[in-house]
């Protein structure tokens, strides 16, 4: 059976449809439109003798390199040592200027000298250690001798092997990106648990009593989108000034624009793009150097539904203790998250190593390829971070 089918009747019928002779009718394109089939399902014999093997004219590998989204999480990662120690300093309080207290101002004056060694105030120092490491591995066997019969030249086989290597690289990138997303989601969970988050929909409904909106009705409302974008932009600007308000630890710090990461959900960014064409709020966010669009926080679900892409669901015993069972971390779940703005130090990877190895077995002539990955992420409560989400009143 050959792979050639006469389709003149389908051609005639299709032309009739496009010329308007008929309304579109069902067409069976199975004979000339291929979605790919396995070799055991394909006809392998010629159409005349029925005895000659059909040859593969060309082998094309459908593999392309997947590049991870740069979320400004990776740092100058270390391979040695066990922990990164971070030191925090508290601002000293102001005291009286002794140079203006030397004299009592009378004539003649009474002089009171200050002891230059009487200063006993120090800068308060605290520190934290970061260093929990996760690890995983990818291991694949690659044949060298056994697949030669599948190709007509060494070049073709090399291209095939390259496709395998590219697939391994994609596997690593996708896996690493997924783990990184969980680290960022943990930072979001910290903000939610510690009250460093704004339910924008609730704020809107409190100040716009005549235009009450819900999660379903707000997402395409231009006035609401402008209000939301304005609130995100203002908060990002407020973070420029030293303050204790925008981090979970209540630490005095600030975040300049070049250290600010602004991650917004694609569904929100797209709506703002199309519904706020004459509005400058969204444009100001996009111009920030750390602006980044995120398709989902943890995963797309089955259909990229808004409820799925906007949800985080995290357990971490260091974020929130479970009073009923101290050894079991509390679950922090929230949907409707549209933006997460943070200092670049709020979520960071300090430890990490990617080790690649290969071993050739002389006896069976199979190459074993391995990728071993270690990674350690830190969510920093002392760094500025704020979450914006939408939730209906309960």
Task: Give an overview in words.
The protein has 394 residues and is an alpha/beta fold. The chain folds into two domains: 1-55, no CATH class; 129-389, no CATH class. Helix content is 26%, strand content 23%. The chain has helices spanning 8-18, 154-193, 200-207, 215-218, 222-238, 266-275, 281-287, 306-309; strands spanning 74-78, 84-89, 125-130, 134-143, 197-199, 260-265, 291-294, 312-315, 331-334, 337-343, 347-361, 366-379, 385-389. A five-stranded mixed beta sheet has the order 5-13-10-6-7, sandwiched between helices. Strands 1-11-12-4 form a four-stranded mixed beta sheet, covered by helices on one side. A two-stranded antiparallel sheet has the order 2-3. A hairpin with a 4-residue loop joins strand 11 and strand 12. Helix 5 (222-238) packs across helix 6 (266-275) and helix 5 crosses helix 7. The chain starts with 7 loop residues before the first helix and ends in a 5-residue tail after the last strand.
Number of helices: 8
Through-space gap between termini:
66 Å
* Largest sheet geometry: 5 strands, mixed
> What's the number of domains?
2
Estimated radius of gyration: 31 Å
Shape: extended
pLDDT averaged residue by residue: 84
How much strand? 15-25%
- In helices, the fraction of residues equals 25-40%
